[in-house]
Design brief:
heterodimer; A: 925 residues; alpha/beta; 7-stranded parallel sheet; 7-stranded mixed sheet; 41% helix; globular; B: alpha/beta; 9-stranded mixed sheet
């Protein structure tokens, strides 16, 4: 199917039509070798993955096969039917599709090709979409969601009947999520329509190109000859990637593998690799200022950053989270004495504002842009000559991507400066820098295809046309993420689509799809298809509220500008009059009205809150973590570090110790009547949080009376009433027992089931699988309504059918994503027998950063009840009862038998009004 | 931690007065009048799952089972002489007809040996099909008036449902929202009991004029106790 032509044949075979040759010549360019090679392979009918650094002419290479073919197609004669789509281009971002339209239009025009190129995204007006169905463009630029919609249309087969090429841009970033799963199923569908379809993947450098090569081509077993190794691999990997139906809930670490479904052989697309261009010129800011112990704001470096901005044409400043973006933007303007045009760009801002910033950037009207990952992918706008990365880059490949932004010409070095926000980040930046020079790249491992996404796809398939289950199973297992899917799971998915798949068979009469006499599954009502189309996609947003700006005091006033969105849970913790930072402004919270957060111009209050966003927190990659551990263990490498950081490590060595690269250091020390345990796994915050939850459960069981914990990307601190150091020394329990891998069994299971995180994941799965609808025709539910009902459904389903397929999908998601269980499992197995306990009298230098996070971070566990208790305690105190008073009459007014009113109401209010409830992420200036 | 320990020592259920009648707010969401032996439950919304499934969203068909199991617990705990189901007992007018046989059996076993009143609600304006018990539009017991929708006048002694109250507090920058009983000593509005019922904040304008705000208390449902919060502690949303 994908026999690879030898490269030597290839160049000879590449056929570049005359107009193209001329065009290259007038430009004074020669087609690059990889462009010709990709062209030759495509002309030979092969699917290919192109790996090339930014600036290597990747886009042109990807489109050259289509353009050359389209250039020689005969013109449509009057009366002849319209030709269908010839090439489908899929990008992860709408903006990227629009950008490509611009970049591709230019050569097409210059060569004088009669080729129509159009985009189709969520923003495309209905009339244009309608027209595209009737007279399709030759090249359609679109997103994964739009592809899913197109293949669910009843005219899908006809629409794609002339399709020859499908191009996936930024493939490395498309494949790592549920979006990638849905897209892989869409590709499998297209392949069924057009078996000779050629797929072209464009990607930045990745660690495992084979995963992407497999993704691009069909993996169907029946097409492989005899018993291929792929088959054996398939069987072996099943147990670790997806639970079999009927097995009880997860009980072993093995079940959390969550790795690629088929690491072994399989069908592979061809591969064309372009070696990296000029090495980027990257440095770490060697600040004159003191690098802080903890925190993420990098405020200390702002004057130095500003200095860099004023010395370059255009600077792109990347940060890891939206809150950091807001803070940095604010700080830069504070020192912006020359009033340089500095703009802000992140995903929560209003679309209009983002477009304005993008336009200004393309026009080179800006000197600096503070941005988050919304600008992460390969959009080349403007004349950027410096990339500043604030905070640690978290993953080496993320860094490479971002630095590629500067200077989009591959022969000139890009210039970048890293600004570590704290001391551990200095280590991380150093490691990232080394990695970039070494060319090491890391992307998260591809996960087995999720079942909730498959549910969506199966329903979508039925919406297009009745399907045969055997054939669809064949098709689905042709998609790489689903290559390991067993038939029983597939059948359960179909059952779920039909009647909900419940053990209690009471919904037969409400079935969404039903099997006909001919054995085809058909939708039972046109309304089903209509609802499906409104709910398509895999991106389930956190419930968000519009931020609407009104004049001060006018809460009820209508109108006013929408500045963007904040997550609902953040808005809920605000009180009228609170000041917070958003869209680069200090805003005063006025109140929540329906689904809007009403704000006015902020005051000068010293206390300003920065919204935190649940998304946008990236864990430290495994590769970088290992590099950081290596650096700690090797004083020889400290020379590359700023002096103050090296001093810090020397001090640690003196006061405590530094762990060997493969060891886990556990320090224990007393402080303020409490006993602390700090360990340094360097596995990222998610894995540490999970570890913290599990360790505190264990410590509670052995009677150490743990009180809480806090996790950072680098370390974890747990505190307790009892001396944990003494317990460990006495072997009650030993550290080996405490950190035993078996914590990933029952402990994890128990905790997971009650965890709010699982509910959140369930909500996502429920929406993606169509159990809960995102939208009804003519009515958009607010996020809150979805949240409430999903939680209720979760509770009911868990107690009545814990093995339901949707709960399976939820657990698989949780273990892979939010909890990072796979990583924790690897760590626990790595450190077995290598845990070093260091009992101390005082806090160690290395422990300071995590200790500073205490109080700043909240652990969102099952503590809701205790918050209620605390609140009712406050009432008691306000009523003048001494603390520790045990009389039940404490909530006296409530108990008033035959009484009518809580008499002390007034007194309560007064008392409570003066109480300070504490606040999350309050910053004082 | 000491706070938690102290709080544990307090009785799980909140005792309240409704028009001079003593009542117990049970954390399961039922109201019990010990002097009368009357247990009141509101907004069961039985068969809501199948009602929604009829329209294409196949949510798990276990809500009736879950709701009845909790109700059975409460009935077993108080052994009431009288049970009042305060309207919207079924999610739609055909709910009782759809009720699967095992659930019907469970329900009838609960009803056996007690006076059982179905107060009609907006979702179930008629008597439930083929079920025992007496169907009434409104029920008076002494000074108490049991009706589904709270009335705009005559608050004294009214026990109503319909609004699905919940309350929200913010503590340590974190928000806790729970279903609740809402009362001011004269009137009591019951939390919705059904497994799939949502809730509406007591500060919403739908409650406007129903309570004497100075005396409003929300009895928030905890895992095994009720938390009494004065109106001044509550937050909208």
């Amino acid at each position: 199917m994908t026999a690879e032509p030898r490269p030597t044949d290839v160049n000879a075979a590449a056929h570049l039509p005359e107009p193209f040759v001329r065009w290259f010549a007038t430009k004074g360019w020669a087609p690059r070798a990889h462009q010709l090679e990709l062209l030759a392979r495509s002309q030979a009918g092969c699917s290919t993955l192109l790996i090339a650094p930014t600036g290597a002419g990747k886009t042109l290479a990807g489109f050259l096969p289509s353009l050359t073919e389209l250039a020689v197609l005969p013109k449509r004669k009057p009366g002849e039917r319209h030709r269908g789509i010839h090439t489908l281009y899929i990008s992860p971002l709408k903006a990227l599709a629009v950008d490509i339209e611009r970049n591709l239009g230019k050569p097409v025009e210059e060569i004088g090709l009669p080729i129509s190129i159009e985009t189709r995204t969520g923003d495309t007006p209905a009339h244009k979409r309608q027209r595209q169905k009737l007279s399709p463009p030759d090249i359609l630029l679109t997103t994964p969601e739009q592809l899913a919609l197109l293949i669910a249309g009843s005219d899908a087969k006809r629409f794609f009947e002339d399709l020859r090429y499908v191009i996936f841009d930024e493939l490395h970033s498309l494949v790592t999520s549920k979006r990638g799963h849905l897209l892989s199923l869409g590709l499998a569908r297209l392949r069924t329509f057009k078996p000779d379809l050629r797929a072209i993947g464009l990607s930045a450098t990745v660690a495992e190109p084979d995963e992407l090569r497999r993704w691009l081509v069909g993996q169907r077993i029946s097409l492989l000859e005899g018993e291929m190794p792929g088959r054996a691999e398939r069987v072996a990997s099943e147990g670790t990637t997806r639970k079999r139906p009927g097995t009880p809930a997860l009980t072993s670490a093995a079940a959390f593998g969550g790795a690629s479904p088929s690491r072994g052989e399989g069908n592979l697309a061809g591969l064309v690799t372009v070696a990296g261009g000029a090495k980027p010129d990257i440095s770490i800011l060697d600040s004159e200022q003191r690098v802080p112990w903890a925190g993420h704001s990098a405020r200390y470096a702002v004057p130095e950053i500003y200095d860099q901005i004023s010395r370059h044409r255009t600077t792109l400043l990347f940060v890891n989270t939206r809150s950091q973006a807001e803070l940095l933007f604010q700080e830069l303007w504070r020192v912006n004495e020359e009033s340089l045009p500095i703009a802000l760009h992140h995903g929560s801002l209003d679309v209009g504002q983002r477009r304005r910033v993008e336009k200004a950037m393309a026009d080179n009207a800006l000197r600096a842009i503070v941005a988050t990952s919304t600008l992460d992918l390969g959009i080349d706008w403007g004349d950027v000559d410096l990339v500043v990365h604030v905070g640690a880059p978290k993953g080496a490949s993320r860094l490479a991507q971002r630095i590629g932004r500067a200077n989009h010409r591959m022969d000139e070095p890009s210039k970048a400066i890293l600004i570590p926000a704290n001391r551990f980040e200095v280590l991380e930046c150093r490691a990232a820098l080394d990695a970039n020079y070494l060319g090491a790249q890391d992307t998260p491992p591809l996960l087995a295809g999720s079942l909730d996404v498959l549910v969506q796809h199966v329903l979508g398939t039925a919406c297009a046309a009745p399907f045969n289950a055997d054939q669809l199973y064949e098709e689905v297992t042709g998609a790489a993420p689903y290559a390991g899917l067993d038939r029983a799971s597939f059948d359960r998915v179909v059952d779920f689509v039909a009647t909900g798949g419940y053990a209690l068979k009471s919904y037969e009469r409400y079935a969404r799809i039903r099997k006909t006499k001919e054995g085809l599954w058909r939708v039972t009502h046109p309304r089903i298809a209509q609802q499906y189309r409104l709910n398509i996609g895999t991106i389930v947003e956190m419930p968000e509220l519009n931020v609407r700006y009104v004049r001060s005091g006018r809460v009820a006033g209508y109108g006013g500008r929408v500045l963007g969105k904040v997550e609902e849970y953040f808005a809920e913790t605000l009180r009228p009059g609170d000041n917070f930072l958003f869209a680069g402004k200090v805003l005063r919270f006025e109140g929540i009205r329906e689904n809007e957060c009403i704000v006015s111009s902020g005051g000068t209050s010293a206390q300003i809150i920065v919204p935190s966003y649940a998304g946008g927190k990236f864990p430290l990659s495994t590769y970088l973590a290992d590099q950081v551990r290596g650096m700690l263990a090797d004083p020889g490498r400290w020379q590359a570090l700023p002096e103050q950081v090296a001093d810090w490590l020397r001090l640690q060595k003196e006061k405590s110790m530094l762990p060997k690269r493969g060891d886990l250091l556990v320090e224990t020390f007393p402080r303020n009547d409490r006993h602390f345990m700090v360990c340094y796994p360097f596995e990222g915050r998610l894995a540490h949080q999970t570890l913290g939850m599990l360790l505190t459960r264990r410590l509670e069981r052995v009677g150490a009376r743990p009180l809480g914990f806090v996790a950072t990307d680098y370390s974890l601190a747990v505190w307790a009433l009892d001396d944990m150091g003494a317990l460990f020394s006495a072997g009650k329990p030993s550290l080996g027992q405490l950190f035993d891998e078996d914590m990933l069994g029952d402990d994890l299971e128990e905790w997971l089931n009650d965890s709010w995180m699982l509910k959140r994941m369930f909500r996502n799965c429920a929406v993606i699988s169509g159990l809960i609808e995102k939208k009804f025709p003519g009515q958009e539910k607010t996020g809150r309504q979805v949240t409430v009902s999903a939680d209720l459904i979760y509770d009911v389903l868990r107690s009545h059918e814990p093995d339901h397929i949707l709960l399976q999908a939820t657990r698989a998601d949780a273990s892979a994503g939010l909890l990072d269980v796979g990583r924790l499992a690897d760590m626990l197995s790595r450190i077995k027998g290598r845990i070093v306990h260091k009992p101390l009298e005082h806090i160690s230098p290395l422990a300071v950063p995590v200790m500073l996070e205490i109080g700043r971070e909240t652990v969102n566990g099952g503590a809701n009840e205790s918050l209620l208790m605390e609140a009712s305690d406050l009432i008691a105190e306000a009523m003048g009862k001494a603390a520790g008073d045990e009389t039940p009459a404490r909530n006296g007014p409530v108990v008033a038998l035959h009484g009518t009113a809580p008499k002390a109401g007034r007194g309560e209010r007064k008392g409570i009004g003066t109480a300070d409830y504490g606040r999350r992420s309050v910053r004082s200036k | 931690m000491t706070a938690a320990l102290r709080a544990n020592a307090i009785a799980a259920a909140g005792l309240v007065g409704v028009a001079g009648e003593c009542a117990l707010c049970d954390p399961r969401g039922v109201l019990y009048f010990p002097d009368i032996g009357l247990l009141c439950v509101s907004d069961l919304h039985l068969e809501k799952g199948s009602s929604i499934a009829r329209r294409g969203a196949l949510i798990p068909p276990y809500d009736t089972a879950a709701t009845l199991a909790r109700l059975a617990e409460a009935v077993a705990a108080y052994q009431p002489k009288i049970v009042v189901s305060l309207g919207d007992s079924f999610h739609d007018g055909w709910g009782a007809e759809r009720l699967p046989v095992p659930f019907r059996d469970t329900l009838e076993a609960l009803m056996a040996g007690r006076d059982w009143f179905w107060v009609t609600g907006n979702h179930d304006p008629d008597a439930p099909a083929d079920l025992p018990g007496e169907t009434v539009g409104e029920l008076a017991v002494g000074a108490l008036r049991f009706r589904h929708e709270p009335s705009r006048d005559g608050a004294e002694g009214e026990v109503a449902g319909h609004l699905h109250p919940c309350a929200r507090i913010v503590q340590r920058g974190r928000s806790v929202r729970r279903r609740c009983f809402a009362g001011d000593g004269a009137r009591m509005i019951m939390p919705a009991f059904g497994a799939y019922t949502g809730s509406l904040n007591v500060l919403d304008r739908a409650y406007h004029g129903l309570f004497d705000r100075a005396r409003l208390m929300a009895y928030m449902l905890g895992a095994d106790r009720v938390f009494a919060m004065p109106g001044s502690m509550l937050r909208p949303g």
